[in-house]
Amino acid sequence: MTGIYNRIGPELTPVVRTLLILNGSIFAVQLLLSWTVGDYLTIYFGMTSDMVTHRFFIWQLLTYAFLHSVQNFFHILFNMFSLWMFGSVLENYWGSRNFLKFYLFSCFMGGFFPWILHNVGFHQGTIIGASGGIYGLLIAFALIWPNQELLFMGFFPLKAKYMVVILMLIIAFSGSGSNIAHMAHLGGAIGGALYFFYYNKLKSKIPPSLSLSRYLQKRKMKKWQEEMNRKIHVREEVDHLLDKISKSGMNSLSRKEKKFLKEASSKYYSED
User: Fold this and answer.
1) Each residue's pLDDT tens digit in the chain (272 positions)?
2) CB 175 within 8 A of CB 75
3) Which member of 44, 204, 216, 244 has the lowest number of beta carbons within 10 Å of its beta carbon?
4) In angstroms, what CA-CA distances link 232 with 222, 242, 269?
5) Could you say which protein family the record assigns here (predicted)?
6) pTM of the full structure
7) 58 with 122: CB under 8 angstroms?
């Protein structure tokens, strides 16, 4: 991350800059409409589960993330602040194309997850806000650089893992009483985590300690070690029984010992 941050925060990257301009422009249009004819953008582009299900407004599963509550300026403020602070670093790390895919997938999951819950009985109203995508970014950042020190609000040094928790709480509570659903936050976080761990194009960027292939390799090695220890134990027991036979004959073995010797011979010694 060296060189990415300036004195206040990270340098703006191309996709993040475009997203900030897009969100800001749409918010300005929302304000203008709300002061004149009404916020029709929220009606047609906010995520309303019944409209997605019964009227097939499937675009709402993504477009909701580019709208914000005109009654709550803090929500768009903290969303865009988080997008700048964490999105710019992740875009530098992954590249613009992979970053955009990650962000849009997190936004989509922020709409898809509440829609699924709505259809199984957990009802909510219209959902708007980029918080689903932001939560995905926060999860990814905290997984990659948990101990990176950042300047919170440009003044207070905090480790990334603590700043992420604080920003999540701010975003969550800044949506209270408005059209923002907390299940969208959870959906975005889940989407971000899933994409981070399993998407092939980002797999090479996962820290070795978090890699699924590394985990499977360690698990395989553990099983191999257990099998080797078991073989060593069997060989020692077989050697003991063979010594007993050489001294006292086959009849000196108990029925259990004879059975063990036969099974060990067929299972282990046939493999060598």
Assistant:
1) 544 554 456 789 999 999 999 999 999 999 999 888 877 898 899 999 999 999 999 999 999 999 998 888 888 998 999 899 889 989 988 889 989 999 999 999 999 989 998 888 877 788 999 989 998 998 898 888 888 776 665 567 878 778 777 766 766 665 444 444 677 888 888 898 888 887 645 555 555 555 445 555 666 777 778 888 887 877 888 888 788 888 888 888 888 888 877 777 776 554 44
2) yes
3) 204
4) 15, 15, 12
5) Belongs to the peptidase S54 family.
6) 0.66
7) no
**DSSP string covering 93-130:** HH-HHHHHHHHHHHHHHHHHHHHHHHHTT-----B--T
Q: For 19-83, give the DSSP string.
A: HHHHHHHHHHHHHHHHHTT--HHHHHHSB-HHHHHHS--TTHHHHGGG---TT-HHHHHHHHHHI
Rounded CA separation 117/221 (Å): 40
Domain 12-203 CATH (choose: 3.40.50.970, 3.40.50.720, 1.10.490.10, 1.20.1540.10):
1.20.1540.10
DSSP state of 84: I
- Sequence-ordered list of residues with C-beta below 8 angstroms from that of 153, at least 6 positions apart, any chain: none
How far apart (Å, rounded) are the C-alpha atoms in residues 85 and 8?
10
User: How many residues belong to the chain?
Assistant: 272
3-state secondary structure of 11: coil
Residue 29: closest CA among 83, 76, 74, 61: 76
Domain positions in the chain: 12-203, 210-267
User: How far is 142 from 207, CA to CA, in rounded Å?
Assistant: 12
